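User: I'm putting together a small comparison set for a docking exercise, and I want a reference complex before I start. The sequence is below, and the ligand is zinc ion. Could you produce the 3D structure with the ligand included, as structure tokens?
Assistant: Of course. I'll restate your input first, then give the structure tokens for the complex.
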Amino acid sequence: MSANTFPAQIEPFKWAEQGFTWSGTLPLSRFARITREAVGSVEDQRVQINCKLSMDAYLRLVWFDAEVSAQAPMECQRCLDTVHIPLDLKMHLALVENESLIERLDEDADFIVLGENESSTKGSIDHNAVVDLLALIEDELLLLVPLSPRHDVCQHKHQPTEQDVAEEKRDNPFDVLASLKGKLNS
Ligand SMILES: [Zn+2]
């Protein structure tokens, strides 16, 4: 399903104008920094993502909204067994072209200045700045990774059975959401 490939690098203003939305799942292994914290195999771990870009013409910025749900297998620091740490996230992030626009935002709003990490010595507004949405998501997910992961109650007992895994796959709304996405974009 190439139609559901997550775009690696995007130009937020252009894509927001086109009403970019994306829903689906990605393998946890796409998030290298999270995977590095995980133990065992992450092969069957999926990250559920619903996200969109929207223009805010008044504030002259792009909003990136995302709902992300994942589970990272980590080593419980108490019993050393695997604990699946839920990583559930809602993002509402302003993508702004330059710092002068930040003051229009609410004080507690999250934002990034586009092109901040590039050589922006020109001081010109970079309408073509690209962002890596997955990297933005991963930055936020990493904040949810506990320094000392552990079970609420350690017991060694429950391992996901094959039936559990099959049920998770059946719940995957991938197909429905992918078809919705096609309509929104057309
Ligand atoms: Zn434990």
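Residues 119-124 have pLDDT under 50 and may be disordered. Strands lie at 21-27, 46-56, 61-75, 82-96, 110-113.
User: Thanks, that's exactly what I needed.
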